[in-house]
Every structure is written in structure tokens, then in C-alpha cells.
Amino acid sequence: MIERYSRPKMKKIWSDKNKFDKWLQVEIAVCEAWAEVGRIPKAAIPRIKKATLNFERMGELLRITHHDVTAFLNAVGESIGDESRFIHLGLTSSDVMDTALALQLRDAADLLLEDVDALIKVLEDRALSNKDTLMIGRTHGVHAEPITFGLKMALWSQEMKRNHNRLEEAKKIISVGKISGAVGTYATVSPEIEEKTCARLGLAPAPISNQIIQRDRHAQFVTTLAIVASSLEKFATEIRALQRTEILEAEEPFSDGQTGSSAMPHKRNPELCERVCGLARLIRGNALTSLENVALWHERDISHSSNERIILPDACLALDYILDIFTGVMRGLQVYPDNMRHNLELTQGLVFSQNVMLALVGKGLSRQKAYEVTQRNAMKAWKTRTPFIKLLKEDKDVMEHLNAKELQSIFDYRCFLKYVDDIFVRLGLLNKRRKSLSKR
Hints:
Blueprint (H helix, E strand, L loop, with lengths): L7 H6 L2 H21 L8 H4 L6 H11 L2 H13 L12 H37 L4 E6 L2 E7 H26 L1 E2 L13 H11 L2 E2 L9 H28 L7 E2 L19 H22 L10 H29 L2 E2 L1 H8 L8 H10 L4 H18 L3 H6 L2 H4 L4 H7 L9 H7 L14
Helix pairs in contact: 2-6, 2-8, 4-5, 6-7, 6-11, 7-9, 9-10, 9-11, 10-11, 13-14
């Protein structure tokens, strides 16, 4: 269990006290439904609603019964006396446990949705404040063409919006109750009681069940958490890469008095982002276990039960934690535009190679010939560390088609910014398109 990473609200949801409170909430809701249809006396309900659970007594009974629901029912029954005979009427253990678990998962999803929304807001703020902050785009880890840091942040914000939608759907899928008896036939409890109970709890009744709520629902929930965690790992890995000493375009917060190494006082490590990556792997592992839980014997076995007591709390606790951690990283992220510009110019103009090729095509060269001419000069620039434009000006195959003024106009970073505003408008981050920088 990852107790050390627990945040108070999520920790409360997965506490034993809350779990058993939810069990009792389900039992009381069923009793109220029975009373509504006249199966048990309405006069018994006030007494039943005063039922409490003595945890110490439940522990004593558990050592005897070796069955947590039986121990729970006996301990609760002792708190109210004769009316306890109406509690658990017609139910099986999973009616209570799975329905209560749905309440916990729903509450956990609500907290995670709040976390996701908080991160989206920070990413959108970062996107807007760095909308025109030029940096090199990298493919295969190698310089490609310029982008802006704001575009990178906008891309992440959109991914988190998709994650929000996934979580909403997963919450809907898991927010179902099951009050259908031993193997789901309603032989000892009616569909009407299930519907009335679920309505009281704010859940939808499972349209059909056997002894349990089917575990494809739980698998969808946990795999959704794994997808969110994988997005966070993707983002955190990028920050880690950008924080490398030889790049240093962005850096996670480093507070006064913080140390990065017991041996090397100069160290400023991306340890928060590394923590996000490590726990994302844990959540993905839990997702695999949740998928293994889908296939159970016949109407059910309990091979899922033992691991769910670990993977469901841990996946929710871990994701809640790393969402909070990464949101804090993005709030305090140090961005270094000067280093971005320095790195952008490391290849001495090679980022304009495609623009040069297209200009030559526009002058009548075949694409193959234009590519050949441009690549020839680009490779020489790589090897000799000579400015790309200087080599182009010395190449007669280039200068036959482009004059010096035309060539110089190609080497203008503003061409990479001309549609940034359009992208931000499309994403709803700008209300209207501003004039592109190339037209100012």
C-alpha cells in the first residue's frame, strides 16, 4: 500500500472506517426500500438508522468467523438489538460490498476529476504565457523545426481534457449498484428493491448481474487511471529531458534549502518528475491486474477480491498524488527562453532547410533536385559547423534560382509562428485571431 503518498481526502475515501460506513449506508438503504414496500415495519427504520459499528468488536468476531461481512453484521446487530433481523434481508455479501465499493470509486473519481481540472487550468495558463516562446522541436531526439513552448503546453492541456472525458465515462460505468441476491436472480430480493436502494444511493442499478458487479467495469476504471498516469509520465519525461544540463530549457521548481545530492552540492535533479514517472508505472501494473480480474469462475469466485483491496485504493491514491505533484511542478516550472533560443541556433540555420527546398521548388526545380541541393549544403553545414545560409550563397545551383534577398527572407523565424494564433483559437484559448507576427 502507498500510505506515505496519501492525500487527506483520498485517504479518507479508502479508509476502513469509510468502507464500513458505506456498507452500513447500503444496508440501511435496503431496509428503507423494504419498509417502503411493506416487507418490514416502517417503525423499525428509525432504530435501524441508529445502527453503529464497533470496530474492536468486529475485529473480535472476525477472528472467529473469518468472514468480514458476517463479522460486520454481527457487530452492527449488537448495536440495535431486535431490529437487526431486518438488516441484510435477502442479500448476499457482494450486494453490500460491490455497491459500497461503487460509492467509494465514484467519490474517488470526483476527486480525480478536480485534480485533472486543476492541471488543465495550469497548462492552459502556461500555454498562453508562452504562446510565442520559440524553441526547437525535436523528433527522434534530434532538432527538427521550431515550435513554441506554448504549443507544447496547449497540446498537453488537450490531452488532459481527453483524460477528463475518459474519467467522466469511467465514473459513469462504475457508478452502479447490485442488490440481486446470491447469484443475481432476485430470488430473495426483488428488482424493485434494487432500484429503490440504488436511487437512494445515487447509483444506477446494474441491468443484470450474477453474484457480483462485473469486473469489466472496474477494469475500465483502473485502465482509465493508467491512461491518465501515462499522460503524466509523458509530460514529466519531457520536463526531465528539457532539464538536462546540456539543454536546460525548462526546470522543475527547486526551493531554498533543497538538496539534490548527498555528495554533490551543485545538483538540481528533476526528482519530482521522476517520482511521477515511477508511480505511473505502478498504476499501469494495477491496470493489468484489473484486467486479469475480469475472468472469474462461473457466477463468481473471490480471486479478484484480495488484490482489489490493494489495486483500487493504490491506483486512486497514487494518481491523486502524482496529479497534485505534477500540477505543482507546472505552477513553479522555470522556463528559460534564452536557452531555448541558444539551442534553436545550434545548427546555424539548418532548421530552415525545408523552407529552402520549397523555395527552390517554387522556382521550378523538381522536388528531388531541390531536396538534393538543399541536403548537400545541410550535410556540409553539419560537418564543418558553417552557417547554412553562407553555404547556400556559395552554391551556384541555389543562386541560379534565388537571389540574396530572397534567400535571406527565408531565414526568418516568424514563418513558424504565423498560424500559432489560429491553433489557439481552434482550442478555445484565444477568443479571436490576432494578426500573425509575419504581417506585423
